[in-house]
Amino acid sequence: MSRTNVSLFGQFLSLIDRNLCNKIIKKYNTDKHSKGINTWTHLVSMVFLQMSSSTSIREISTGLMSAAGNLSHYGVSKAPTKSSISYINQHRTYEVFREIYFALLEILEPSVARSRKYAHSLKRNIYLMDSTIIPLSLSLFDWAHFRSTKGAIKLHTVLNYDTGLPCYAVLTDGKKHDVTIAKTIDFPKGSVVVMDRAYVDYGWLYNLDSSGVFFVTRLKDNHQHEILKTYLTNSKQEHILSDQDIALTGLNSAKKYPQTLRIVKVYDESNQKEMILLTNHLNWTADTISQLYKSRWDIEVFFKHLKQLFHIKSFVGTSANAVQIQMWCSLIAILLLSYIKTKAKYSWHLSNLIAFLRLHLFVKTDLWEWANNPIINREKPPDKYGQLSLQF
User: Fold this and answer.
1) Cα angle: 55, vertex 78, 101; to 5 degrees
2) How far apart are CA 304 and CA 159, in angstroms?
3) pLDDT digits (tens, 9 = 90+) for 264-295
4) Taking the alpha carbons of 142, 145, 150, 156 in that order, is the dihedral positive or negative?
């Protein structure tokens, strides 16, 4: 079928490998008791929620119904009703969508990979780890306890530095401590983990070191240490204030981490403050450590895009399972958009790409021709009669 006969949304969905999805669906047996709406239709509906910026189940249902002539192009036999979406969001396990995301990541990752200076020079896998709070109304989401009068969930994420996409993600209640989740993650030997000081647990950091994993983080204010060696800093790198090897001297911290550590004091010009970076790698240049920690901003940008460009600040279902489904489908959508952004010849910003795609969601044109050249510069029409002169 010609691509010009299929809407951009249909071609967007075609980036998802249906055979791969069918294998995962069969594994979880999620089409049993599906109330007439199979898992693929469910996935299409939740991705449509993100791409159309719908705000309710009603808008998902009516939006797909309005595209009745295109449903067959999406692999959907009929648009789901409001009650059907509500039911399957509550009863179909979110795990099937989580596995679809990571399976698609493996396929599309080579195409969304970016050439990064420090990852290339270090020849190591670099992971950025952080979490973000998503506030919820405790009266509606009574399972999402955070504070006495507030509800929230927390998205714990490990971002692959090369791809800019999550290679690990888990949703918990807002009370779950970052380190508790971090301790469940196995990082490859020789890899580098960059994180904020919320993850500074010396026992866990020593386990990383013992496993051959390097880390870069910030030192907590209440630390106690002795200086073992001070290194000269490069006079051309004015943002590097000091570079030292240290040993922890606190009673508990020294017991939990008995090995030598390294601290690099840097000046953050953008925030006009000093930061003390902590690492277990003793041979990198101080500037490399500084730039590695600076790369942590990528995960902040990812969270910003996720919250601003996708529908995750409010949810169309109130159960924990429905919230998980919506979150994982938003990650699937951002993965597909990142794939288009990287493959397209046009220099897209992610915010512009999703805004333009939303405007042309049901337009029937070739996806890649549109992505490569979204703005048509029309030629100026010829001056048929010539320029008229004014007579005074």
Assistant:
1) 60
2) 14
3) 999 988 778 899 999 999 999 999 999 999 98
4) negative
293-332 confidence digits (pLDDT tens): 998 988 998 888 888 888 776 788 888 898 899 999 999 9
Residue type, position 297, single letter:
W
Both tokens of residue 354? 């999703």
Give me the amino acid identity at 229.
K
Locate tokens 């890899």: which residue?
Answer: 191
Tokens of 351: 């915010």
Sequence letter at residue 276: I
Task: Scan for tokens 């994420």, then name that residue.
Answer: 157
Amino acid type, 209: D
Radius of gyration of the CA atoms of the chain, in A: 25
Closest CA to 17 of 55, 43, 56, 36: 43
Separation CA 129–CA 204 (nearest Å): 14
The reported pTM is 0.79
Which residue, among 302, 329, 294, has the nearest Cα to 164 in the 3D structure? 302
CA–CA separation, 282 and 279 (whole Å): 8
In terms of C-beta density within 10 A (0-12 exposed, 13-18 middle, 19 or more buried), how is residue 128 classed? buried
User: In sequence order, which ranges of the chain are alpha helices (DSSP H)?
Assistant: 8-13, 18-28, 39-52, 57-65, 82-91, 95-112, 117-122, 178-182, 202-210, 251-256, 286-294, 297-309, 320-343, 350-359, 367-372
The amino acid present at 343, given as its one-letter code, is: K
**Where exactly are the structural domains of the chain?**
3-95+317-372, 210-295
- CA–CA gap between residue 108 and residue 17 (Å, rounded): 10
Residue tagged 């904020």 (tokens)? 196
Q: At what angle do helices 350-359 and 39-52 cross, to 10 degrees?
A: 110
Cα–Cα dist 130/166, whole Å? 11
* Tokens standing for residue 192: 């580098």
